[in-house]
Amino acid sequence: MSTQQSSGAVGNIIVDGQKLWDDILETAKFGGTAKGGIKRLTLTQEDRQVRDWFTKACEAVGCSVSYDSLGNQFARRPGTDDALAPITMGSHLDTQPTGGKFDGIIGVLGGLAVLRTLHETKRETRHPIELINWTNEEGSRFAPAMLCSGVFAGVFTEQEALDKKDREGIRFEDALNGIGYRGVAPCGDHPVAAYFELHIEQGPILEAEHQTIGIVTGVQGMRWYEVTLRGQDAHAGSTPMRMRADALVTAARMIDAVQKIALENGPDAVGTVGLIENTPNSRNVVPGEVFFTVDFRDPDDGVVQKMEETFYRIANDLAEKAGLTLELARVWDSPAVHFDVECIASVRRSAETLGYPARAIVSGAGHDAAYMARITPTSMIFVPCAGGLSHNEAESAESDDVTAGANVLLRAVLETDMR
Ligand code: HGY
Ligand code: MN
Ligand code: MN
Ligand code: MN
Q: What ipTM was estimated for this complex?
């Protein structure tokens, strides 16, 4: 290994891409599925396993690892001026129920590759460097998404997070205690000098344009809603059609409306109904109750607002016509985010210096960086994924691209340290 390098010019320091790829394959076994994906919902035993692995891997490259009151994990490498606020990197290790090997994971393992490179080259930095694994980024088990980076950034309270319940009625607090990752330090108790997040694009643009790096300038606006429709359970055979209060038929009309509203507000708007529960869900009972979720997004918050107003009008009208009761609530509102120009410039310069084809891009997916941008200079680095596919067990990315992303992350962190 080269001797201790001063932190003067960034130099031509790069990560060990093979080790990074090995880490991706090794951690994929925690919650690995038969189809080659990962099911590692937040605060489950699989999540605990990968967290334990993360602690050991970071300690092996000279970091101390701690976790706060919501289980956010912090791997810290001291700086020569350790009183400075840390420059941070991060993402998430939890996945969707049918998640892939790369969403969130390459941001954490790419950060680990950066820490490993600094350790092995004995590279000093003025600032401490921290790598963060955020609890409950996906929002699949406990809504909303980015819950614990949101608490860290002051958007939600710690108690709001602890009180969240999943669809089986299990409390966040009990699940967190159950995996032994409830720390003492209050969430959000330490300042941060900057935050960079490496992530797959989860969309088709970079691959289609043969770009290696996405210079992420921001994140689109997104809102989540919960809808409960109540009619009356009834016999499927003996109840005349005119006497039914069928919650599922009206829900189907509302779900169709979600798609129509997104298409009418295009070209960027998207609308999704991802979760539905039909009760009693029996083949010969007219369904008396349906619960479903709505996800609206667009880079322009004004468009999201317009989609919300249109959906509320249609939903109330359909429920009234069908004689059903409607409960409709917005449960999450994450406005569009613009990242820090200096951090964006660092990512751009790093990609250019390393000779990677790159282009600016806005993120369609939500990320912990969206909340970190509220409290510290923040930006993101994207790399392509095959067919733009994500939140799917077939999600895949190229080792060279992941390595390129980690190299850009390393340079952006070192450049920021020298600013
Ligand atoms: O919903 C999202 O965009 C993120 O994957 N949590
Ligand atoms: Mn993600
Ligand atoms: Mn995701
Ligand atoms: Mn994220």
A: 0.90
